[in-house]
Design goal:
single chain, mainly alpha, 8 helices
């Protein structure tokens, strides 16, 4: 993986993580993370739509008139959301019911529209597919982590399997969703700042070593 694609991967997963860094898609993040499985289901659905819509938008980026680009993007996204809904309804009806209203609302998910407008409409198909993949995975990981914490603490189970009888009802509530979200954002910010600081130090040390080598 060359540096360009590595940057796309790091941006989607960490640097520009849509949930913990950019704080996008907060409605499904807060509403669906009562269970880890809901987080995985919604995350993978969004990832599929991101990959497919990014690909089509990138392929058509020179053919879509600038004046109608947003309606065109929404139409493309809606097509793939419909596919996801039909597949889930047929193959995974329980997950389809759990995701409920938030599944069709993927059409107007700000993460997907943002990537379509800022990346897919300006880059090649392969880069756009990678951007959709890693942005979607970043979203999926975030929702799954939140769902796992809330499910373990709120109901004493994980992926529907009972771990113990102890539970804290607060984490299963709306207030618990906001609290968990805030904790994750704070932790993510601290960790990403430390990683970025170490990266800058390493880059400076490498530059300094190169300068000393040139002098010698």
């Amino acid at each position: 993986m060359n540096n360009e694609y590595k940057k796309i991967a790091v941006d989607g997963l960490i640097t520009s993580n849509p949930t913990f860094k950019l704080v996008l898609g907060t409605c499904p993040t807060l509403a669906l993370t009562t269970m880890a499985m809901n987080g995985i289901g919604m995350g993978l659905a969004v990832t599929f739509v991101l990959i497919c819509s990014n690909l089509i938008i990138s392929l058509l980026r020179n053919a879509i008139p600038n004046q109608v680009r947003i309606p065109a993007f929404v139409l493309i996204i809606a097509t793939f959301v419909t596919i996801v809904r039909l597949v889930l309804d047929k193959l995974l009806p329980s997950l389809y019911e759990s995701l409920g209203l938030y599944l069709p609302l993927i059409v107007v998910n700000c993460i997907i529209l943002a990537r379509a407008e800022s990346f897919a409409s300006k880059n090649t198909p392969l880069k756009s597919v990678c951007d959709g993949l890693f942005t979607g995975l970043g979203f999926t990981i975030a929702l799954t982590l939140m769902g796992a914490v809330r499910e373990i603490l709120g109901s004493g189970s994980i992926f529907g399997l009972k771990l113990w009888n102890f539970s804290i009802a607060f984490f299963a509530s709306s207030a618990g969703a906001f609290f968990t979200f805030a904790i994750f954002i704070a932790l993510f910010s601290i960790i990403s700042e430390q990683v970025e600081k170490k990266r800058k130090i390493a880059k400076y040390n490498l530059f300094d070593a190169q300068k000393k080598t040139e002098v010698i």
